[in-house]
Design goal:
The protein has 255 residues and is α+β, with helices and mostly antiparallel strands. It is 14% helix and 32% strand. The chain has one domain.
């Protein structure tokens, strides 16, 4: 299997995860124009710049994230009995035959995959997050107004999808809430999340002493049907100078 990501000291990941959680609890006022003018657009008033190419740095949970685990290998995820039962029926050949090979590439599972991200502004109220692993696209939409209600402002009545509907707002870091998800997998080997799951994420930037830029995504999956408690993880991405290593590959149920 091709090695898609690098390794880095786990100590940084733990520190960054802690810092991200601290930042997650802090709110911030909406960006204002100079001289007390109207609020700036989310693009113009962005407190951090998330754009560019980023590579996942997997320094924890290697055996679950870099390879496809065996059926039933689902420790560390607080599954309900229903979730365990569903995971233990995983059949990748059945998923492929049914055209469901992207079940582990939905938003709750995608960001833990060995992927590269390309983040750009689609317009002044929408961040576009593309992955080369599975060739997925997430749209993080900022609702109109200075303090939108999270979960609002996305197209209503649309069919559930792998990436769902994501509402974003700046809180110093970027906070994103995703709903309207198509049922999928938290882990490649069939660990499920339901269509009622809610994904909450905080995107934070850090600069290492070496000058390297790091993106830390603190993720919380809420799904009482399959999880006894919310599943909280921290994901690290390192900024790359360009897209020369970008390597789009389609969804697969097995790798």
């Amino acid at each position: 299997m091709k090695l898609r990501v690098g390794l880095w000291d786990l100590g940084f990941g733990i520190w960054a995860w802690t810092a991200a959680l601290m930042l997650a609890g802090a709110g911030s006022a909406s960006a204002q124009g100079r001289g007390g003018g109207p609020p700036l657009s989310p693009w113009a008033g962005a407190p951090i710049d998330l754009t560019g190419y980023w590579v996942a740095v997997i320094s924890e949970d290697w055996r679950w994230r870099m390879v496809t685990p065996a059926k039933g290998d689902h420790p560390s995820i607080p599954l309900t009995q229903a979730g365990k039962d569903a995971a233990d029926t995983w059949d990748p050949a059945r998923d492929e035959a049914a055209g469901e090979q992207c079940r582990s590439y939905g938003a709750p599972g995608l960001m833990r995959s060995p992927t590269r991200l390309h983040i750009t502004w689609l317009d002044d109220r929408t961040l576009k997050v593309e992955s080369d692993y599975g060739m997925q696209t997430r749209l993080l939409r900022f609702a109109p107004g200075p303090s939108p209600q999270l979960g609002a402002g996305t197209p209503a009545g649309g069919a559930p999808s792998w990436q769902g509907d994501s509402t974003a707002r700046w809180e110093g870091s970027l906070r994103v809430v995703t709903t309207n998800l198509r049922p999928g997998y938290l882990r490649k080997n069939g660990v499920p999340y339901s269509g009622n799951a809610t994904l909450t994420e905080f995107f934070d930037l850090f600069t290492h002493g070496s000058g390297d830029r790091w993106l830390v995504v603190t993720s919380r999956v809420h799904d009482p049907e399959n999880l006894q408690t919310d599943w909280i993880t921290s994901l690290n991405f390192k900024k790359e100078p360009n897209g020369s290593k970008w390597d789009p590959t389609p969804c697969s149920a097995t790798w």
